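Extended Data, panel c. Modelled sequence:
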Amino acid sequence: MRTQARGLAVAVAETVIEKVVLSRPPWRNLPSGELILRGLTRESDPLVAPWPDLIVSSGRRSALLARAARRRAQSAPLLVHVQDPRTGAGDFDLIVAMQHDKVEGPNVVKVATALHDVTPARLAAAADAWRARLAHMPRPLIGVVIGGPAVRAPFGLEEGQALLDGVRRLQAASGGGVVVAPSRRTPDAVISLFAGAAVQDPAGFWTWTREGDNPYLGILALADRLVVTGDSTSMVSEALATPHPVEIFTPPLRRVHRAFVDNLVSRGFARILDGAWTGLPPRPRIDATTEAAAAVRQLLRERGLGG
């Protein structure tokens, strides 16, 4: 969620100050931002003047805190929330929600993918950093990005093996190489499974085991095709911010993630991983951050804010 808020803020403003606010129980569970503010830890960044022209928040507690901060400001910073705030939607000047979110209203902009900070400039820098390190891999290069379990959505060895089987079929059909980047949520057993595949095929399969530099952005930049697990809207969205074809592995998913994936597939933005090397039509980069940033800049201009 921090990445989504930060990505939007950076896309809009020249100067961005990120505030990390931590609240102790029982205050953190109270339904009011003013009450939550009473329980801030010493490690929290202060919410004090000078107040900005724009406050961007993401997540339910952040929504409460953003509303409380604007009341403290006794001014009119623009208030923008990413995702459904679940409460007080009318207090925000703009809400950037995804297609499957239930929030509706004249202040709501619906986008197809999650916001992020994977910009063309960052991808270009990552390509420069990783091109030589991945040059030995066969082409076409298949980049695999792995998430992990979520509430009511298991991701263990069974799911990992199904993903690996699909990737191996894709590799066999294309004659290419495979590079794999697990996330911090990926179970160790699943990483070991993919590391074992790399041992069996050292010339054509490489798995990052969380040692050394993280290749995630390099894989997004340099792969000819991307395979992403559907449990993470952020990783799928970041993959779609590249020009490469995207295939989504769908283990048991939460309803919200299933709706997200189904919308992308129905619109032709991605396909479900089945192991077949199917040709996919070219598509432009899909970047909801740019779309949301344009809406925010328009509001700033209308309010005479931001210079």
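Residues 2-113+290-303 form one domain. This feature is highlighted in the accompanying rendering.
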